[in-house]
Design brief:
Layout lengths: L15 H11 L18 E6 L6 E7 L2 E5 L23 H9 L8
Antiparallel strand pairs: 1-2, 2-3
Length: 110
Amino acid sequence: MRFYQRERALASPDLTPVREAFTTMFGPRTLADSAAMVMEPDMATVEVNVGDDFKTITATLVRGEKRLPLPVGKVTTFPLAPGAHWEGMDSPSPELAKLFREGPPPKGGR
């Protein structure tokens, strides 16, 4: 999935709408800001919604109650083995498939 809809000169993606969404969500950043430790409240999620027809795809940048649309350009699809997350990958073991679905167990185990 590409989060841009057009390219600029020299086949460089035009990420202006994506940068604007991140600036709106997080405020302006400088190179020095990248040195600071990022904590959980500083993070956002990209939600991708696929319509029932598998042709309508939207993406949204989400942080708390704030939701900003992201552009969705070209989408490439390919068949996957059951439980796999990448083209050409065999189906993972049941334990690994559970890890992909649920993430790591909480500290202290289950």
